[in-house]
Amino acid sequence: MGALLSWWLLLEVLGLVGLPCAARLFGQASAYSYAFSKILSIVSITYVAWLLGHVGVAYGSALRVAVIVFALGNVVLAWRDRGTLRQWLGRGGWKELLWADAWWTAAFLFFAWQRALHPHIVDQEKYMDFAFFNTLIRTEQMPPEDPWMSGLTFNYYYFGYLMNANLARLLPVPSPISYNLCVATLGGLVFAQLSAIGWHLTQRHILALLTGAFGVLLGNLDGLWQVLEKGQFVDMDYFRSTRIVGRDATINEFPYFTVIHGDLHPHLSVMPITILLIGWLLLRRPWSDVAIRGVTTVGELVRILALGLVFGAMVATSPWELPVGLMVTFLLLQRELPLKPLLAWPRLRAGLIALGILVVGYVAFLPFYFHFQAPQGGVGFKFATTKLHEFLTVFGALLVFPGWYLARHLSERPLVQRYGQLLAAVLALAIAVGVLTGKAVMILMAVFVVAALWVAYTTETAETRAPVLLVLSAAVALLACELVYIKDPYGERLYRMNTVFKLYLQSWFLLAIASPWCASRLWEVGQSWIRSIRVAPAVATLLVAATACYPVGVTATRLKYLDRGLTLDGNFYLRRDHPDDFAAIEWIRANVRGLPVILEASGNPYSYYARFSSNTGLPTVMGWANHEGLWRSHEPAVEARRREVSTIYAAATLEEVQPLLERYRVKYIVVGELERRDFKPESLEKFRQLRVAFSQGRTTVYER
Prior knowledge:
4% strand, 6 strands, mainly alpha, globular, Rossmann fold
């Protein structure tokens, strides 16, 4: 409880300290800017510390300097804007702050409770995440050393891991607990930010909460199908709901799953940054003049540069955000402009500003790109055959209100009224042909693209155009998944796995923001029609009930099989199932400083291998070779290291492996349950010549 409270207080302080900066950048002090001040503070502090680390400042010192600089900068801004801040608080701004904090706190505590139901940092790719997390807590240099390939630097996008590690470094909370608190923090931030966006767009509390719920609290329709199949909520297969499209050939995660699953991957860490970008661009006041007149003041230039930094942080955290992020940036920057003339100078200028934001983001993170080599790249073209029922299982609930809204507006157009029946018949025929040929999703999303573009620029004003442009962006992204894919190292069978995975997640957020807004507009338009007044809330209620089946079922299942008290200790399983290894890991955490190299057995991914490097952050000669091969384009050195680790353990004498131990600068050697299982006892006897640093039961740590 103490760790939970101190963590919450840290985030509160970061939010309040960062409010003057957020108010300046967002154009005004408000609950809206406050909702984004926490992630803005985290990104800003991490960036300054990271940059100082790259010019040779020890990272611990760099982080302290960054915190002080950021705090002092906000003190200066608060003093300069004291009149505005005092006026806002006097008008009831403090009540808005309390409401914003209540939403954030409730979501944070909810996700902390979810992690306490299943806190173990061991399944799926958590060992990878925990290794990065622990190494970044220990490191004093930038770029950091790869925990699974000692002596080399990270060749992975690690900025999100660094943000999370910085939070852990600011508090004396053990990493197995702080890891889970980071997951809960990300979920809480996403909910609070989305709810703020929902309030900004609709001015209704219920729709604001619905925006947050659609975004990160509710699931897809597979939860409903599972309940109907089994006749109960418990024993729900929570993993099945993320493998809908193509059944294991793609990944269809949605934000609620991503958070409760607890892999602290880039696609989770980037969520609040992406929503920060969208939320900032949804404001008209800072950007309307930029779109119409260009950048004409120092304040506008500062905002563009700051937006570029946020964009750069987003891409450095997860490069998969770049295409959709750039599209959304351009569309929202030019939303003040009419569609015609299409190539008018103001629209071209908006495009140049969007490209400028991209360039600023790239330049700001040049030290990262200097050391990062993408394992593969390029765009492939291939018509996909996503089945319509699979696609609607994932996105059906989020498409109801946008589809309804677009259809209602289009039905009022003279052309549609004149040829409505013919157009409906053609559309139905096209979808039917699409179902037979496997192209129904492609046709459906193409219709959404055309409809959203038409409605955005024929019926909406600049003030109401933005949410429709988010629908357009989501439709373009989902259509792209049917036509193209980003090449990665996963091979032919899984060629579109990551493309669908990442673009579906981004589209989920765009539709989660747009859907409640569309519902509110349908409500307003239908005030004179009693049936619409009843239908829209009824549909919303049904959608919430259907999509709530997944979180309710997963939670009920976890409660049913809970065999211990609630805990946020991610190492609970180690203490229970591997007590000797756990004792050795605890000894290392308490007694070993810096990043000396530790040797342990190397084996299959998604397993107990690499448990010491993952749980301590100490670099090992070779962790999961499968993952290192993916990150490093299957360099021969990866397989060579894996063999050499086996050679060291299997050798008869210590003398014959001394050159390898020297080459990799091995300081500690682990002989535990995995090493005793994989290698002969007589081969392990040679390590008795070394000093025993720690020993308990079947686990011994030797020191060279």
